[in-house]
């Protein structure tokens, strides 16, 4: 009898309503075997359809290894709902079945928790009386101070734990930025609030925990900074990435960096302001920083000069003018182009200054922390100055990372970095932003996680496109792991008996005759929707969704909620459930948000209508660059990118219908390309084995 089998027997004994499914045990055994492999081979990639019970499967497959090897089991998800389900339901139930209960905790980024020191400063600092402050700013300042005082009172008197997500009232984003901090702006043990600090309370809990629940963004941020800042070092972690199909896209967002002009001008001004305070603040060690001050007094004006030079070059370019005049959005710029060639020298000069400033402000931060520890510096002074020094350090460190991407020459044998420009609003002003990022997150994920972690499990209900792991494998940097590391678990559902797939006879094609197809969709919805039941209608375009809604009769619109109207998706689901539970019909018109992750079991969803095949629209510069790279290497973007992506999205959308083995209902797809196009037949062949009905 294996350890996994023993665990499942314990779970069945402790939970009378639970019976382990064969697919669940298969997944668990596969993961346990993978975790027993040699270092850098402990990787398991598992596609587990809805109904398998993958949470218990990966918990039973990993917990023994984590406990025996004294590694932290870190479970990462993409959604808050799944994190809460793990903390409030799954982990307590699982823990109760073990010989010794496990300790678990949910961890978020430092910015999700209030910094008591900064909150105290905002709440107790007298309001500025400057003549430069306009009426609106003055009013905003009064509001911020009042709310900060309330937050401080609630936290101090233990009516609030300091977690932003546990507040019922809305906290203004600008205020929250002022009262939270990052690692560079934190005084740590030297802070007068250290023992009561919400973040450090969490860190102490995490040190004692055997299981940590986090999200993809936190793990990727930690990995981007080298690992070990928020979580333990990757070498001490056994990772489980649930909802892993989201990981490549999120990793790309973290790997890309940007140069924001207004942010850099403001940070340079902050750096200069800090510099003026240093001689008096650190007077006790002035013999150490004479050279530093002279270098910074040279470097900070030079940064301003380089930024202005870069802006001037950009503004003189025709493509940038088109961007500013809103003729185009996010234009790419290319290595060896005249624009990039003109930018190289000022960018190299800016990088040189950034390295110097980052180095010196890192030393200043270290000295301030030491001054606080040795009580050479008053707490009030040190805690007020440290966040400003930390901000300078952070932004210039980020600028260095951006330059590493922007200035890296293209190489023929590997995908080049992608460079592009956008116009964004920052601090209530419009600014040019220059972006640079890798075309694929594969190298980032492999270097920072797969090559370092003790073990890794990646799982989701949909990881394969057209029945293959190929696209996910490439995007995640898993190319060195062979098929022994990949498993597709069969579904426990009897699709033939539980669901019908209906593809009505449609005259028009959505991609060629959109207006006629749109009107035809309205007619079909009138024919196929039963207004007494629970229906989910999925669209790929907001404009089409709203146009269809306007043309539907009152019998349908009276019970329909449209995504993007007054209610949030979460509140739409709550209202939908109330409608159905009260014995009435309810219809949701939704976009991507409803095609993935929405859980409406049983009678809460008995009909899913997919209006159009959910082909991805590749508009982002990195996606366009990836298409060009595939063509350059002799491939076809449609086959390599679009088809696997639409296959995954279609399976996810259809998956909204059956959530449990007792569910039943019907799926209708209003896109005849499934039957008339060769690729449509491929997509149809890789859907679950629903009972197919054709008009």
UniProtKB/TrEMBL annotation:
<feature type="binding site">
    <location>
        <position position="186"/>
    </location>
    <ligand>
        <name>[4Fe-4S] cluster</name>
    </ligand>
</feature>
<keyword id="KW-0238">DNA-binding</keyword>
<keyword id="KW-0413">Isomerase</keyword>
<feature type="binding site">
    <location>
        <position position="191"/>
    </location>
    <ligand>
        <name>[4Fe-4S] cluster</name>
    </ligand>
</feature>
<dbReference type="InterPro" id="IPR027417">
    <property type="entry name" value="P-loop_NTPase"/>
</dbReference>
<keyword id="KW-0067">ATP-binding</keyword>
<dbReference type="InterPro" id="IPR006554">
    <property type="entry name" value="Helicase-like_DEXD_c2"/>
</dbReference>
<dbReference type="InterPro" id="IPR010614">
    <property type="entry name" value="RAD3-like_helicase_DEAD"/>
</dbReference>
<dbReference type="Pfam" id="PF00270">
    <property type="entry name" value="DEAD"/>
</dbReference>
<protein>
    <recommendedName>
        <fullName>ATP-dependent DNA helicase DinG</fullName>
        <ecNumber>5.6.2.3</ecNumber>
    </recommendedName>
</protein>
<dbReference type="InterPro" id="IPR014013">
    <property type="entry name" value="Helic_SF1/SF2_ATP-bd_DinG/Rad3"/>
</dbReference>
<keyword id="KW-0411">Iron-sulfur</keyword>
<dbReference type="InterPro" id="IPR006555">
    <property type="entry name" value="ATP-dep_Helicase_C"/>
</dbReference>
<dbReference type="Pfam" id="PF13307">
    <property type="entry name" value="Helicase_C_2"/>
</dbReference>
<comment type="function">
    <text>DNA-dependent ATPase and 5'-3' DNA helicase. Unwinds D-loops, R-loops, forked DNA and G-quadruplex DNA.</text>
</comment>
<dbReference type="InterPro" id="IPR011545">
    <property type="entry name" value="DEAD/DEAH_box_helicase_dom"/>
</dbReference>
<comment type="similarity">
    <text>Belongs to the helicase family. DinG subfamily. Type 1 sub-subfamily.</text>
</comment>
<feature type="binding site">
    <location>
        <position position="197"/>
    </location>
    <ligand>
        <name>[4Fe-4S] cluster</name>
    </ligand>
</feature>
<feature type="domain" description="Helicase ATP-binding">
    <location>
        <begin position="10"/>
        <end position="288"/>
    </location>
</feature>
<dbReference type="Pfam" id="PF06733">
    <property type="entry name" value="DEAD_2"/>
</dbReference>
<keyword id="KW-0547">Nucleotide-binding</keyword>
<keyword id="KW-0347">Helicase</keyword>
<feature type="binding site">
    <location>
        <position position="115"/>
    </location>
    <ligand>
        <name>[4Fe-4S] cluster</name>
    </ligand>
</feature>
<dbReference type="GO" id="GO:0004386">
    <property type="term" value="F:helicase activity"/>
</dbReference>
<keyword id="KW-0378">Hydrolase</keyword>
<dbReference type="InterPro" id="IPR014001">
    <property type="entry name" value="Helicase_ATP-bd"/>
</dbReference>
<dbReference type="InterPro" id="IPR039000">
    <property type="entry name" value="DinG_proteobact"/>
</dbReference>
<keyword id="KW-0408">Iron</keyword>
<keyword id="KW-0479">Metal-binding</keyword>
<dbReference type="InterPro" id="IPR045028">
    <property type="entry name" value="DinG/Rad3-like"/>
</dbReference>
<keyword id="KW-0004">4Fe-4S</keyword>
């Amino acid at each position: 009898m294996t350890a996994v089998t023993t665990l499942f027997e314990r779970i069945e004994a402790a939970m009378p309503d639970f019976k382990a499914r064969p697919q669940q045990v298969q997944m668990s055994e596969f993961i346990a075997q993978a975790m027993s492999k040699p270092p850098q081979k402990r990787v398991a990639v598992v596609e587990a359809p809805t109904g398998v019970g993958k949470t218990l499967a990966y918990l039973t497959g990993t917990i023994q290894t984590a406990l025996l090897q004294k590694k932290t089991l870190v479970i990462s998800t993409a959604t808050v709902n799944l994190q809460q389900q793990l903390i409030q339901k799954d982990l307590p139930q699982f823990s109760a079945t073990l010989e010794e209960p496990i300790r678990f905790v949910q961890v978020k980024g430092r910015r999700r928790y209030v910094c008591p020191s900064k909150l105290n400063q905002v709440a107790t600092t007298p309001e500025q009386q400057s003549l430069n402050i306009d009426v609106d700013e003055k009013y905003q300042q009064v509001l911020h101070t009042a709310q900060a005082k309330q937050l401080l009172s609630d936290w101090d008197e233990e009516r609030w734990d300091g977690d932003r997500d546990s507040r019922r009232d809305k906290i203004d984003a600008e205020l929250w930025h002022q009262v939270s901090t990052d690692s560079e702006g934190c005084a740590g043990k030297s802070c007068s609030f250290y023992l009561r600090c919400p973040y450090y309370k969490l860190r102490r809990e995490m040190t004692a925990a055997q299981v940590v629940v986090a999200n993809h963004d936190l793990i990727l941020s930690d990995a981007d900074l080298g690992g070990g800042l928020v979580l333990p070092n990757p070498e001490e972690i056994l990772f489980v990435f649930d909802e892993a199909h989201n990981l490549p896209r999120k990793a790309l967002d973290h790997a890309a960096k940007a140069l924001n002009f207004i942010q850099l001008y403001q940070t340079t001004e902050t750096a200069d302001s800090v510099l003026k305070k240093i001689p008096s603040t650190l007077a006790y060690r002035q013999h150490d920083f004479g050279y530093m001050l002279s270098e910074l007094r040279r470097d900070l004006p030079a940064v301003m000069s380089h930024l202005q030079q870069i802006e001037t070059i950009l503004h003189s370019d025709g493509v940038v003018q088109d961007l500013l005049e809103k003729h185009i959005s996010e234009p790419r710029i290319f290595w060896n182009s005249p624009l990039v060639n003109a930018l190289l020298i000022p960018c190299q000069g800016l990088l040189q200054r950034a390295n110097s400033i980052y180095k010196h402000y890192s030393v200043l931060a270290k000295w301030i922390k030491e001054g606080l520890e040795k009580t050479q510096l008053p707490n009030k002074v040190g805690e007020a100055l440290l966040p400003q020094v930390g901000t300078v350090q952070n932004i210039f460190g980020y600028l260095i990372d951006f330059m590493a991407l922007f200035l890296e020459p293209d190489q023929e044998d590997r995908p080049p970095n992608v460079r592009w420009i956008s116009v964004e609003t920052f601090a209530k002003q419009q600014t040019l932003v220059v972006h640079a990022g890798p075309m694929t997150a594969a190298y980032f994920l492999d270097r920072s996680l797969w090559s370092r972690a003790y073990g890794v499990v990646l799982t989701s209900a949909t990881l394969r496109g057209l029945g293959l792991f190929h696209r996910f494998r490439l995007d995640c940097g898993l190319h060195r792991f062979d098929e022994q590391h990949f498993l597709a678990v069969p579904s426990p559902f009897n699709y033939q008996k539980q669901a019908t797939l209906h593809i009505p006879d449609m005259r028009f094609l959505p991609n060629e005759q959109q207006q006629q197809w749109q009107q035809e969709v309205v007619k079909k919805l009138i024919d196929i929707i039963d207004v007494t039941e629970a229906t989910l209608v999925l669209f790929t375009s907001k404009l089409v969704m709203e146009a269809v809604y306007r043309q539907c009769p009152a019998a349908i619109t009276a019970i329909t909620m449209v995504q993007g109207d007054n209610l949030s998706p979460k509140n739409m689901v709550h209202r939908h459930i109330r409608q159905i539970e009260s014995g009435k019909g309810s219809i949701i018109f939704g976009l991507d948000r409803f095609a993935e992750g929405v859980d409406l079991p049983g009678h809460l969803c008995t009909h899913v209508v997919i209006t159009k095949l959910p082909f991805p629209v590749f508009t982002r510069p990195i996606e366009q660059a990836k298409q060009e790279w595939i063509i350059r290497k002799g491939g076809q973007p449609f086959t390599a990118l679009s088809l696997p992506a639409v296959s995954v999205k279609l399976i996810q959308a259809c998956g909204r219908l059956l959530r449990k083995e007792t569910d039943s209902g019907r799926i209708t797809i209003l896109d005849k390309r499934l039957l008339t196009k060769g690729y449509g037949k491929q997509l149809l062949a890789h859907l679950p084995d629903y009972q197919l009905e054709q008009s």
